[in-house]
Each structure stands twice: as structure tokens, then as C-alpha cells.
Amino acid sequence: MPAKHLNQLLCRLTRPVALVLSLLSVHAQAAEPLKVVRIATVATSSNGKTTFYGPTYVMDRDKWLANELAKRGIELQWVPAATASVGTFVNEEFANKRIDFAFYGDLPTIILNASGISTKLIAAGGTGNNVYLVVPPNSTAKSIEDLKGKRIALHRGRPWELSFAKLLDSKHLDFDDFRIFNLNPQAGAAALSAGRVDGFFTLSDAYLLEDKKVGKIIWSSKQAPLDWKMRAELFGASDFVKQQPEITQLVVDAYLKASQWIAQEQNKDEYIKYLTQSGQPESVLLREVQGEPWAAHFNPLIDATLRQHYQDGIAYSLKAKLIRNDITVNDLLDDRFVDQGVKDMKLQGIWTPTSPQLTVKQP
Description:
Blueprint: H1 3-31, E1 36-46, E2 49-52, H2 55-62, H3 64-71, E3 75-81, H4 86-95, E4 101-105, H5 106-114, E5 119-123, E6 132-135, E7 151-154, H6 160-170, E8 179-182, H7 185-193, E9 199-202, H8 206-211, E10 216-220, E11 232-237, H9 238-243, H10 245-263, H11 268-275, H12 282-289, H13 304-319, H14 329-332, H15 336-344
Parallel strand pairs: 1-3, 1-4, 7-8, 7-9
Antiparallel strand pairs: 1-2, 4-11, 5-11, 6-9, 6-10
């Protein structure tokens, strides 16, 4: 047989063998037992001590999740994310498959999914955090309309940009109607204090500026529908969620247990006192949650308000050219685990679904 024909025959014979070996290799990798679960969360570090935010604090304190995973031979690893760069950090970790879950905000995850890295929103982060429009104490501005043509500090690409866009849209205004300075909250506060900007759009640190008499709040999302708030949720890598539904349920159950504990009125003082370790005074934390039932701040349900918020976030991201590829809310949200956890733990009476048209009742 000519050498040419022999080589062709060998190729045909070895192809199936190579395919079988390839499939066996993939199967071996898939069958490899899970050894670690990595969860990214916002945290601060001072004097060698790490302070977690939100229900993550209770999840770490109570060790229920760590113990349940240990029974299965799995280690729990918390991956701290600095407040100054949460979105970028978490997106990079998801993209490089260095984390399995993360607590973080809306715009970064929309950008990530539009880029082709798929995650699932598996539990809501409460009703969200309020956002505030602050002006210098001697300003005559009483509304966003009064700042048209003026200088406003806003940290672009962070979750509260969506809230700012909703405020502008409600007044038939656009970003081009202002001189926007892309500043993080610390730089924005400094710019407002020094008189270098005429307005500052930020989170609850607005109360600190009022307390120091270097700013005054002229608008907050407490005056707006619930879906205007800044949101952060629990997300899981889509591949992990699909391949490890039992472990995903454990993570969500741990989150529900933590949220249940915090939602109890008798634990409010202890939880608020813990949060002061992050540097926010107790008076600021209490004013942030004022006007809304305490338990609502830790509502994990994936409801109409959350769905509307993410629909708006996707639409805004396309309009603002933050993303090029469209994504759907149905692809992003996965309510199976929260629904199952609430049912199994009989938590139905603690939280109720909300409507995006609702506003926070002012005290």
C-alpha cells in the first residue's frame, strides 16, 4: 500500500480513538469533585481585620454555610472586594473563573453579561440603597432642573448612575444638559466641599456632608418609585449554577438565613452597631433606612420591582452605549433557589413582593 494511502487510513482509524480520549478527558474534568466555593463580597480591612457588608457579615459569623460545605469536603472562601472598585474587580474575577458567586451591583453585571460572560441573579439584595442629590449649603438650587448647565459630580459606571439617569429622564433632561465630572464618592465630596462642583450625586454619605455643613440634600430616591434605588444582588456564575444546583441552593439558603436574622426588629441595633465599623456613623445608617419597614431592606425576593429595575438598566446601558449587545431579563434572573429556600424554611410571612410604582413613605 502506498505510504500516502496508509497515512490516510491511519488518520481515519485514529480519529475515533482521539475522540473517545477527548470525551473521557472532558468527563474526568467534569467528574472532578468540587473542592472550594469562592464568594466575592464588599469588604473593608483595617488593622488586619476584615469587615463584611450586609448579610455577608452574618453568613461569615454564623458559619452555617462553611459547616455545610465542609460536610461535603468543600472549603468556603470569601473574596474581599474594595468599595472603590467592586464592579471592575468582580467582573474580572467572573471572567477569569476565579469566583463562583458575588454580591455586587446592577450596571457592572449588565455590562458583564452583554460581553458574553453569563451570570445569574439568584437572590435580591433587599429593596436597594437610596441615592441623593447634594448641593453646597449656600446654593439656591432646589431641584435637578435648577442645576441645568451646572457642574455635577457623578461616579460613572457605578450602579447609582442608573438612578441619576432616571431622575434626568423624569424631568426631560439629559446628561448633555450638565457638565458631568466623573469622580468617585470621596473625590466628589471633596469637590463639593471646595466649591468646585455645583451638585453631587451620591449614596448615604450625603448625610455626612449635611452633618459637616458642607452640603444639603435637595432630592433623594425616597421621593421616587422603589425601582429607582441603587441595587446590589447575589449573582452566581451561570456554569456553576447549572452544574452545582445543590451547592447553589446552600449558598442561597445561607443568605436567606442571614437576611431573616437581620430582618428581625430585635436584631436591628446589633446589626447597625456592626455596620458602624465600616466608618459610617450610626445616625447616618438610621437615616438611610428611615421611612421604610426594617425587614424590607433585606427582602431577597425576585419580584416585579427588581425585574423592572433590570429591564430599565439594560435599556439605559444600550442607550448610553455602555453595552453593544442586548440581553434579556429572563436570561439574567433565576428565582428557583430563593423560591425553594423560602418554601423550605417557611419564610413566606417575612417578606412580600413589591411593585415598582411604590414609593418609600416619608416619616
